[in-house]
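INTERNAL AUDIT FORM
Audit reference: QA-55
Scope: verify that the stored structure record matches its stored sequence.
Auditor: D.O.
Record contents follow.
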Amino acid sequence: MTIQLNADKNLTIHSDYEAQMSEKLENELKRFSEHITRLEVHLSDENGSKEGQEDKKCLIECRVEGKQPMAATDFGNSYDQALNGAVGKLKNALTTMIGKLKEH
């Protein structure tokens, strides 16, 4: 599973934070790793440098072997909150998709 992290112009991802995020994604999605070929994580701040509630956005695009890509998006007061929400949504979608594959 390849993990690619992308950020908008308002955020710089330092190597420590990148390693922490990659480890979290690998741990959270471990049971789906045989199906996932690539994850693209896009972090952005919807308000730019202005203050705001739930303005941090995380979009995770997931490439699944032999299937159309799927995506999960969430917003939070921090990038970690947004990432956790998007990972939760992605896990639900993957559970449903893989369950349907096993039924057939």
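Auditor finding: record pair retrieved intact. The chain has two helices and four strands.
Action required: none
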